Amino acid sequence: MTSVVSSALDGFAAAVGADHVLTDEASLREFRDPFAHESWDDYTASAVVLPETVEEIQAIVRIANEHKVPLWTHGTGRNNGYGGPAPRVRGSVILSLRRMNRVLEINEELGYAVVEPGVRWFDLYEAIQAGGHELMLSVPDLGWGSVVGNTLDHGITYLPYGQDMAAQCGMEVVLPNGELLRTGMGAMPGNPSWHLYKRGLGPTPDQLFMQSNFGIVTKMGIWLMPNPECYMPLWLRVWHDDDLGPAVDTLRRLMLDRTIDHVPQFLSTILLASVMTKRELWHQGEGPIPDATIDRMGRELEIGRWMMRSGLYGDESVVDLRFEKVKEPFERIPGAEVWGTKYAPDQFPHIENAIERVQAGVPSLDLNEMTGWYGGEQGGHIGFSPVAPLVGRDALALRDLLRGMIEQQAGLDYMAALIPTNARSFVHVTLVIFDVQNEAQARGAYDTCKLLVREAAKQGYGEYRAHLDFMDLAAEQYSFNDHAFRRFNETIKDALDPNGILSPGKQGIWPKRMRESANGGS
Amino acid sequence: MTSVVSSALDGFAAAVGADHVLTDEASLREFRDPFAHESWDDYTASAVVLPETVEEIQAIVRIANEHKVPLWTHGTGRNNGYGGPAPRVRGSVILSLRRMNRVLEINEELGYAVVEPGVRWFDLYEAIQAGGHELMLSVPDLGWGSVVGNTLDHGITYLPYGQDMAAQCGMEVVLPNGELLRTGMGAMPGNPSWHLYKRGLGPTPDQLFMQSNFGIVTKMGIWLMPNPECYMPLWLRVWHDDDLGPAVDTLRRLMLDRTIDHVPQFLSTILLASVMTKRELWHQGEGPIPDATIDRMGRELEIGRWMMRSGLYGDESVVDLRFEKVKEPFERIPGAEVWGTKYAPDQFPHIENAIERVQAGVPSLDLNEMTGWYGGEQGGHIGFSPVAPLVGRDALALRDLLRGMIEQQAGLDYMAALIPTNARSFVHVTLVIFDVQNEAQARGAYDTCKLLVREAAKQGYGEYRAHLDFMDLAAEQYSFNDHAFRRFNETIKDALDPNGILSPGKQGIWPKRMRESANGGS
């Protein structure tokens, strides 16, 4: 630890109390990337500061400016598959907002909540239930993350309001100079439309604070959907790998006409199998699992070659009409089957299937099982997640590219969730799963992902979110007009954060004083 | 004209051709606020430059930087009720993008178009029809404006994609330094998801270029909705002024559960009457029209005290179910009536009622009639448009505040369209209508609007968009934390546009060199 950091830590301790500044090795270990091999220390923090109030954050930011100490902010610090809570710059001080965990408001009449950044999906869900509110929260697959943190990282959730990640409305932000900003209608004192109308007068900066390092979000509005009369989780199963093409084209038409009106997923056989079983049950040899075995897994586990998880939400009479409308075109694919079960709101928490429960807005950790696929005591994964048009030919092209490279370069299994976040595009979440304690396997997974970044970009597919270990490389691919977008972000970064204290390197954005050494990919 | 401007004009002429630089008085007259009294010259331009290509815009921006000449950009320059094409700073050079009027792409499979900023709603609609595409465009009430210009000013459109003004996806922007930026996936060369996925890797700057002066948008993606099987324009009529309260509450519930899934309007008696008749038919005395007369207008024109225009879009079977669901709760209001007529897509262009046609995506100019209300040869209006929660008590409170001030301060009639741009909030568009040639009446209208800005803000209602003549005053009300939002915008403005050449004063954002003289309201 440098003496600069050390004297900043005295200031932090004065601001938040010495109990809330962690520097011992055991504590710091909890703030590493949980999926990094234990011998790796590229992304190790020097300390963790845990404020409880906005004023404490402002004080911390001012001290960090004085000492030019980089702060790496997180809500709860999950971010699994993308680097967890670890900072991009070794020796940064982690600003953990876990103690800022208050649900500040739930408004049933207008369907929204206001939360602090330490509030987890579990916490907000529980607060809604405890208040007896007839409202649904669009949640991600794992409920332990921060509502704010997930939203700021463009995280995907699955209910109707998950489309275009559009549930956020209105923010409060501590700027790098310590000033407090409220966005949208919140810029007017006492304006009751802060969390109701998505803009204000003048430009709307909210999305400037997502996937960036321009400010620290301290409050956020999130829209909640009134419970529908009926929710029907809906499944499609197809038996041939190339059925993915027509299935994607059918889904696009059904999403464009708003029959399917939320965020579904296409899941590959091995990904689904990894939640239900261990790999050794199916394959003991070297290299990736061959097609014939994947076919057998599909038959024996009754999960086919691809399944689509989806749902219908609304009045029961409308759900019934839509079910028929969905079933007919999908079942034109030979062997394809579509089925669903209807539930009323009081049944949602008791739905047995974890995926069906997540789609009903009930957070869970059940879907975390897959990372144990390769055995070992600790499974890990990297998310490699490019965006593509929601068209069958793109889905097949991307599958072929990614499967080929993951199998041939890394010798790992291709496990994919294709997630249409709207009717026009999907995120191909590739889960590159490995045994964290097998360093060679882990290193191979990271190296392969870096190759994938470049190869996917050559074909026009860019990542929606990038892992800490290849943020620079991923950002590097967004190079139109000799990196005009990077220069634009740098101009804003330098103007708002001249000392470069907030999350340097986040999503490839570096402050001036670190640019020469850091740019150009890792 | 200063010599600085004059030497810049030589440069502009060299860049775009002398024919495309206008300086004669007759031409400049066309670029005034059409509703300003002829004797007013606060917002008069010194010249108009009309480029045809992105490269020409870049050249103009570089010349403007050299000479520090302010450019005021518009698409087509309609912006009626908010200042038309006129610049905030007298003597600015208007950068008119009317010649950049190409529809660059229409993609039927994925439902989007890409347009240049001079493309009008009429143009894009016609291009969609000419291509035989089964797609609908969400249009505003008047079709002569620019698709890009309207979108950048947070303009309201009425089809399902009009909700939250969310149809825009992906931009190309000339920055104040002349550099070309592409946003979202467009920042990656050759990425086919530019107009399909609303974000990129890193922060999303699109909304930073709306209602601002940070760049010149040269290309924009806009989403188009597939034609539904059925569209049913839907009308609600209520007979008592206070019926607005329960009607608003009922609408909120029907929008929250997505039964009504587009942008409706509540229209006051006089606003509707102004489209159908002239004022002198009803009232010849001094002062605003009294309630008893408004009641009589409502009866004789069969428009009640408030009407709601709305629509249902979808499969006919679903539209039928939804019609029953809408009718029942509204008709619990004593005397209220709900009716609708079903149309198939091939009938949309032939629907007789202009409002019903606009809601079917067919652009029109029919709704421009209202400005002739006070007689005279030229009617004008100011849009005073605060945002409020979509709650009956707010609707009534805002009506009382605005009606009281417009009648008492200006002696004018209260004419209102309450427009829920989503299920949670509405824009109260107050049309302050006057005879442009009656200077005292016109001045009274402007003065009253300035009072309204302050009074509405005191009650927590802020404008969604501000007229040129009180942009500073409206922005002044967004004063949280001693104007932190203004300082934030100024920081970005100074970083991106150090010479302050792009649209100085737009939405209250001034560049450094003009700040001392300009700030503090008009």
List the helices and strands and how they pair.
The structure is a homodimer of 522-residue chains.
Chain A: H1 3-16, E1 21-22, H2 25-29, E2 47-49, H3 54-67, E3 71-74, E4 93-96, E5 103-107, E6 112-115, H4 121-130, E7 135-136, H5 147-152, E8 168-174, E9 180-182, E10 216-223, E11 225-226, E12 230-238, H6 244-256, E13 265-268, H7 269-276, H8 291-300, E14 306-314, H9 316-330, E15 337-340, H10 354-359, E16 379-384, E17 387-389, H11 392-410, E18 416-419, E19 425-435, H12 439-458, H13 471-476, H14 480-496, H15 512-518
Parallel strand pairs in A: 2-4, 3-4
Antiparallel strand pairs in A: 1-2, 5-6, 6-10, 7-11, 8-9, 8-10, 12-14, 12-15, 13-14, 13-18, 16-19, 17-19, 18-19
Helix pairs in contact in A: 1-3, 6-9, 6-11, 11-12
Labels describing this entry:
522 residues, five-stranded antiparallel sheet, 15 helices, alpha+beta
